[in-house]
Design goal:
heterodimer, A: about 270 residues, mainly alpha, 2 domains, 11 helices, 2 strands, B: about 290 residues, alpha/beta, six-stranded mixed β-sheet, four-stranded antiparallel β-sheet, about 40% helix
Amino acid sequence: MFKDITMGQYFPGNTLIHRLDPRTKLVLTLLYIIVLFLAKGIWSYAVMLAFLSVCVILSRIKLSVLLSGAKPIVFIIIITGILNLFYTKGEHLLFRVWRISVYLEGLQTAGFLILRILLLICCTLLLTYTTSPLQLTDAMEALLNPLKKLRFPVHELSMMMSIALRFIPTLIKETDKIMSAQKARGADFETGSLRQRAKALLPLLIPLFVGAFRRADELATAMESRCYHGGEGRTKMKQLRMAAADWAALVSGAALTVAVVLLRRAG
Amino acid sequence: MAPVIQTVNLTHVYSPGTPFEQTAVDNVDFAAERGEFIGIIGHTGSGKSTFIQHLNGLLKPSSGRVLFNGEDIFASKQKTRETRFKVGLVFQYPEYQLFEETVYRDIAFGPKNMGLSDEEIDRRVRDAAGFVDISEDQFEKSPFDLSGGQKRRVAIAGVIAMKPDVLILDEPTAGLDPMGREEIIGNIVRYHNSGENTVIFITHSMEDIARIAGRLVVFSKGRIFMDGTPKEVFSRAEDLRSVGLDVPDITLVMMKLKKLGLPVDDSVYTVEQAKAELLKLKGRGKDV
């Protein structure tokens, strides 16, 4: 049941997008999301869509894979679409059934909103599909570095994040295993009232927590025995370096922003 | 009489239709008779762990059938659930599934799920604890306070308490010291001898399995590669090595001796047999 999780999974590859510096990708994704909320009118949305399409094509991630990652929010998309379709009042009445009237403006708003949500999901998925969790936390640490001056524990935070990410698959596997073991002793996770089911989870949750604490303890010992003492004076094996492609990507991001702002004024 | 447990053309494919597709069990026909003690050996990833999870219905085959006393265990949900109690499965590192506040209640978890009466549950817990040498003054302890070997024995008792006709254990001795291993093997043999119980035992230790199993099944790449008595299997040392396994050390010693020209039987696989074999030589008055 847990094997179907694809959201946030990394697909290794060696394309232009994969090779970009993770900092560039992170900044561009954030910029894209902000610009997405500035977009207004058909032309600015067209530019946004075109920009992301080029990135997806360059990354060689299949469109079907990308869209299947957006599956969990299909429900939200449909609800937002319907609400906007029916509740936006305008001047151009398209048709009227019983007491529900649909206006051209409603159709437009709904269409743009759905597009906006889809682009939002797809751009973040593209980031996680083409960037390993380790690279991502590295980038985050590098970008948050200025906060160190304010005594904000940047290194510790990113270390915690990478450890947490690292253990997600392990815990999923462990959950699967304990579940099977308890089922072998006749535990029943699928039937019964809500109360019974909640109670039936105890034989799963207790060993899972015990295991997680044991792992945390072992990991701490392993890190200390390799002389880990926080971020002070720690160097990196893989230095992040900006290449020409990164600067080009950032420039294209800036161009996108300018274009959308101008089109917004014009439209 | 039908075999107690049997698989017909059993195949299991993980993640079908994705790039990660993998056939873990490939068309396996297997049958175990009542009272047999079967050892399953195979390289890591040979499909043996996937295979045994079909025997009590935890995994559903991609194709093929699993029969318990001649009846399909996937015939109905009810049937699958019943089979869980008849075919007890002890996973690798079973101590990580302990969860109750006391040893007693943890062992009682399985029988309770079977819906037995309180007296029957009590009887079974005491019986099961007896098989694994857990004394009654440990019943009220927290399972998390026990030693590693004790924890594992309590976990095994939790399965034995269901009185399964077939007891399957996945590497029950992994990660234990020699003494802990001895104890667990002794407990399992005791359970096997206590009735018409069938035991299926997965292991990587050729020494352990050579001493106790009456029949060995060798898995390789999701298929049954060899099936026979330990003597038959261990006499094919070359074939075993070709699938990443080996024969017991004592068999290696005897093979070397034979190569050196001594007239010994090189298909023995326990120290006792080897001793008898060597004493025979001495009896003949040969120059050893």
